[in-house]
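User: My collaborator sent over this chain with a note saying "see what the structure looks like." That's all I know about it. Can you take a look?
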Amino acid sequence: MRRIAVVAAVLGAGGVIAGCGGSTTTSDHSKATPSSRAASAKTFLIIGENTSASQITAAHAPYLVDTLKPRAAWLTSYHSFTNSSSLGNYIAMTSGQFTRCEANNDLPTTCHQSIGNVFQQLQSTGRTWFEFNESAANACDIVDHGAAWSKNIYSAHHNPALYYTGLHGNGYDEAIAPNATCREHNLATGTTGPDDTSAMDAALAAGKVGDLNVIVPNDCENGHDPCGTKDPVRQFDDFLRREVPKIQASPAYGTDSSILITWDEGADKPLDPGNPLLVAVGSKVRPGVVSTGSYNHYSLLRTLEDSFSLPHLAHATTVKPLPIYR
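Assistant: Without extra context I'll predict from the sequence alone. Here is the result:
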């Protein structure tokens, strides 16, 4: 969200916000996540905005409910961190912690960390990753731009890879080029035109994707802003209806691949801001509704790490993985 959260927690050791993990109690699932999947497995993580699990209904999200849910793992017991805004939640799901400036949605020019993250973990083991950001003007775009009327709002604080100096480099200045890793892996989905995912779609059609692919729609298509409609939830559902079949048709999407869909956080009160949904589909995913236990963005990170046989970062060490795989 663009609102600035009031963070009452005190910074703990290592720069993490004490207490930001919330409850880490989970039910026991002996087959929660395989220790690793086939080397050909690709994971696609698609992140929406500001939607509570209770809003995902057939009326507002028909593709999710009618098409994906019957063959998906559907976690209604999934949680975000209410002592943060958008950025802190994005950083939590990719590094296992967040700091005060991230909880406040600060821009990367003033808020960045040299810490472990799942992107660098993948690189260190010879694997690849991409982050695709809709309506970004270029790779590693550190500037907010666009408008609701033109349906192309890009928010830099929804681009987590920007905030890791090990990925971006130390030159957080428009006049200084970020390092090669950022330029090659933190990409725009297309032009800044409305709903333009042409570059990402071409990469999918060619099978030129990473082992992990994080997809961040713009603030119209991710459900953040109405952008001329009265149903932001449906806007993200429409994005999924358009893009998920392209992912599944990609020559790189093998039998061990999966698509994970979640939201940074729930909607504002009176809805539950701490309870977004998590949805997973793929041949190795165990379908069904999970309404017990308590899972969060750290559980998501642990699941990603387990899938690629990576060590656990920060608070991912204290939670169990998501019960989504067979």
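A starting point for your reply to your collaborator: The beta strands are 43-48, 73-75, 78-79, 129-133, 186-188, 212-216, 258-263, 278-281, 288-290, 295-296.
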